[in-house]
Amino acid sequence: MNLTCAVLLFLVALLFALAGITRVGARSIERRSPPVGAFAEIRGARVHYVHVPAPAGADLPPVVFIHGASANLKDQMLPLKPLLEGRAEMLFLDRPGFGWSERGDNETLAAQADTIAALMDRLGIAKAVIVAHSFGGAITTAFARQHPDKTAGLVFVSAATHPWPGGATAWYYKLTVTPAIGWLFSETLAYPAGMLRIGDATACVFSPNKVPELYIGDASIPLVLRPSAFRANARDVAQLYDYVRAAAPSYREIKAPTIVISGDRDKVVYATIHSVGLKRDIPGAELIWVPNLGHKPDWIAPDLIVGAIQKVAGKDVDLQALARTVEGRIAGDAHNDGKCPDIKVPDAELAPG
Q1: What angle do CA 156, 287, 283 make, to 5 degrees?
Q2: What is the pTM of this model?
Q3: Strands 151-157 and 258-263, how do they pair?
């Protein structure tokens, strides 16, 4: 009996210690990654955003950027803003629950799309090209269907938009959305375990391409390890499969000019399901397929993303030529191939449906 009590006391003490480490760690992350933009109360949530007003003589329409899972507005702003400054009005935002944005009543992808549309209204952006990376692609499909009048064009970058084999997600997402246990996990273990794994996980997100120097700190990626953000991220990922399974048959309703950019070495999402599916399902969509490109074209091929924005805006751009230039730059990349295996799709899953 005494041994049992001792073990229980040890476990309780350990949980309190881990909770303390998490609180201190979260405060440290916030000090290193303070807000870089403004805030607006949108549909019950305080949303953090960076708005670059339309420059004089802009030759492109406004551009709105929607980041993926585990990220924040810096993930797209750092590589793409310098290439578009002086050419377009831009809006970068932390999706609800991420970065410095509150979650509010934004538990569904449809609600997040509505919040983005409302923020555009607040800032006087009537219509924009939407540029979405990874999980942001699913939200963008909701935006394009719910707000076609605000959608000037779509650029999907390594998007997650279609049902994938089995619908499986990482174990820690499933654990985090489990009542009580998930809250305890996010408040105690997620931060220390995440900090230990963040380097390797990031390497696999970029593989076979090289992680840019100082990427994790510069893009404030650890912000997602704060308990509330970790839970918001997990709830988003947990609902993704059901959303895309229900929504994909309606993608044919999307009429906006669409470019889909993907790499054949994406080790995060099934590009041959998602990107090929978007090309198949959205009328007139163009797929730009780049050999040896991983999950991060926004950082590895930002010139290609800007070319896609130009093309959906009506400019004459040879995206295939741009893709060949990117291919030449990265042809020899093999970073972290040994520890980051490619994901394979069963042949039966590739049949149109």
Answers
A1: 85
A2: 0.95
A3: parallel
